[in-house]
Amino acid sequence: MPLPDYVAESLRAHMDAFKPVEITLPWETPEGPKVPFRLIFTAEQGGMVWRSNFNGKEWKPALAAAGLIPEAVDENGRYESAREHGTHALRHFYARALLDAGENIKAVSEYMGHADPGLTLRVYSHLMPDSRERARRAIDSVFQRIFGEDHGPQTAQ
């Protein structure tokens, strides 16, 4: 997926402050060959960040501090379990931002790692904005290029 300049600059700043750590992990499957990787984000103890730990110790407390989810935790110190509160919501945010900006479904499918744009449509079509105004602007811009200026509806009278 394309890496926006803002994100690239933020990653560079993070990597200046916290140098990437090289660790060895299995490749493709848990039993796969071990391959060295440089991790940009690591756990407090070093090594890889486990999604389940990140979700409960960093992600959900940040959402609660931002007022996006209730701050209440259960007797075990866990936040309410809700799919829309997990890091998976970042995929939906990314897809929605691209679709709102008018990115085509084939590109969104590729960026999301889907093998088929049809899957992307089935999963994210509810996020697609109403395109009536965008369609009007597209046709207007074609006519403006052809005729060189905007004559408006009075020209046809």
Describe it.
The chain is mainly α. It folds into three domains: 1-48, no CATH class; 55-82, no CATH class; 88-146, no CATH class. Helix content is 46%, strand content 8%. It has helices at residues 5-17, 51-65, 89-100, 105-112, 117-124, 132-147, and strands at residues 21-26, 34-39. Helix 4 crosses helix 5. The radius of gyration is 23 Å and the shape is extended. It starts with a helix and ends in a 10-residue tail after the last helix. The mean pLDDT is 86.
Compact overview of the structure:
This protein has helices at 5-17, 51-65, 89-100, 105-112, 117-124, 132-147, and strands at 21-26, 34-39. The mean pLDDT is 86.
The number of distinct β-strands equals 2
Order of helices and strands: HEEHHHHH
SSE-based structural type: mainly alpha
- The main sheet orders its strands as 1-2
Output mean pLDDT: 86
Main beta-sheet annotation: 2 strands, antiparallel
Radius of gyration of CA atoms, rounded to a whole number: 23 Å
Total tally of structural domains: 3
Individual helix count: 6
| Morphology call | extended
Terminal residue distance: 49 Å
Residues in helix, %? 40-55%
Which strand-content bin applies to the residues?
A: 5-15%
Show unreliable segments.
none
Defining key terms:
3 domains; 46% helix; 157 residues; 6 helices; two-stranded antiparallel sheet; mainly alpha
Element layout with pairings:
Layout lengths: L4 H13 L3 E6 L7 E6 L11 H15 L23 H12 L4 H8 L4 H8 L7 H16 L10
Antiparallel strand pairs: 1-2
